[in-house]
Predict the structure.
Amino acid sequence: MLLLGMHQWINQQTTEVTFTPDGNLTYRIEVRTTLDPTKHILWGNDENADNPYIAVPVCYLDNGYHTNRDLTDGDGRRLVTSSYSETNFITVQALNYCWHQISAPCREQLQQHIRKWTDTIITVDFTNAKGEFDFTRMQETIWKSITSDNPRKDIDESDQPSIQHWQNERLAELAYMLVDPQVADITLTRDYAKALRTACERKLKKYSAKVKASPATDSNAEQNRTNLDGTRTKHTKREENFTILTFAYFLGIADCITSNPELRLPPDKRTHWHYEETTSNNDTQALLALLLLLSNLCEQYPLIAYVPADEIQQKMIFDVRFDERYANADRGRVLPLYERLGRHLIGPTRLEDHIDLAFQSYVSRSATLEIAPIEHADIAEIKEITSLGTVDEKHKIRARAVAGRIQCTRNIMQHEPVSRIRLTVLPDWRTLRYSFHWSLLLALLSMLNIVALFANSPLSKHFSEDNPITQLSSALSSLFTGDNLIAGLSMIFTLWLAKTLSGINNSIGDHIRQKLDDTISRELILYSASYAATFLAVGFQNQSDHSKDAPSPITTVLGIGSASIAVIVSALAIAIWVKLIVWRHQWKDLDRTGKDGTSETNPKEGTNPFINDGDCTIDSLPSSGTASGTASGTASGTASGSSDTPSDTASGTVAETSDVLEKAPFGILTTHEHYDYMLAQEDAFVRSKWTWQPQHIS
């Protein structure tokens, strides 16, 4: 129950996110708990029997490596965490607890339906010393296979990255099969039973054929193996296909649910927060709890701390720290043709960056995300990403900004397993203004290059020599001579040196400002090219003017070509300056955006609550894609989990975020409908079993 009902004993979980100078994120998760002494998990061994540890599951983390991970108590002392095998053992015990909350007759039915499938394709000998089939050992083996994030040799490489998410989706479908079709006010728009059968049967057919097609032909392939219970048996390499057993396990549970109409959730949504102790309800909710806990363990693992028993207190604080890269929502975005062309010509076309963050909001009574101030950058807007598109007022995240620090809060009664937000981040006003002045200087110098070309162009013949434009053009063209070459090159070198010394070398805030840095660099390159082309064009024209003979065709072509290049690149440099003007107006518009999302003329009432201190609710933003299934910032598969069939795809859409905390307990439910109803049933079961006695595991 500690793993399934963390919100019952964790009072508050605060996730603090800090953008580091090296362009990553530092997470600090502070967990405040109230540990009931009757619900401790004692963990001891022969060497430490008199002073066992208390195993405390602090939080869930997504599968993968977490750089610089550290776990401390409230006094800053580092704590020992469970090993992979110890975590695996504790989670199997938790699953066994849920399994044994199902009544014996119902468990017997489940076993019969599961064995109808597993007996036809079984690949491992699960007989015990008495020669009897050991269902418990087979089921624990399947559980360990589902929760393991190790590379699997028994599946194709193409299925490897997404197998855990695929299993997670199937477990969610099994959970939704428990919903009574007659439940008031609940209409499921998807046939979950059909979707699960199609996906599992296709996978089962695929891998069963492979097992049959690869018999062990080498007599030496048979070797000893240590079983889960410590016994030794012989096996062949082809027998180690636990994934096939997983497919059969899912199908067996589905058959049991389908053949038992009474194995359904309570029939009235209006009373779904009220738990009535009946055998039918207990079996249904216990099975639901088992499926949801197993689902939680597919793509996550509980970080379990060991606290000496004599140091345990009722009120405790734990701190978890680790580093990850941040999830830029614009990375990988498919750009339209005009935007791609614009980026090649004048650099970045968007001033803002969008960064996706997530925090687990159903593992404690109150969940908070704190975003530390970003150096040289402002958070202009925050929106919640949700598959629903809109969220009613009472379910919105509350946000508050104080001294540049933003706090987003959501409580347990809002029934959201995971909260995803998207930050709109802008460079600060000082940096934008500084870049604008740089761009203005380079645009003016580029304009002077164009004016210098005017004196030698055919258009100058239409103006008299006394015209101010003609005089200015003649004066400027005289600067583009061999006598002034060193001075011109020195000026360009000085501009590059000044930009380099004042350039932005990049932290996360500097990454936001990198767009401005790239823009100014591109404009400086264009101006340098413009100066060189203007110098050549004026030189060729002067050579033609002072030559007694008619200019050669090559000289004429080179002169016209140089002048054309000078005009084009100068125009691009000026276009960049125009882009900076637009960005300045965009920044001011975002700064004046009010809490209701509209532009206000009164700066005191309409100032953005995130650029300036304020308190507001966060509006929602509909998601636009499928789950990336990423973990630890690296891609690990698509939401469908398989390209075998359209039925494998997830119903609904979720946020395009690869934030490390996107994987949250019960998070898979948010990709489906009526997940608040499912959470209510899970919570009712947890509260009804919150009197279980402590276990002493030796």
In short: The chain has a mean pLDDT of 74.
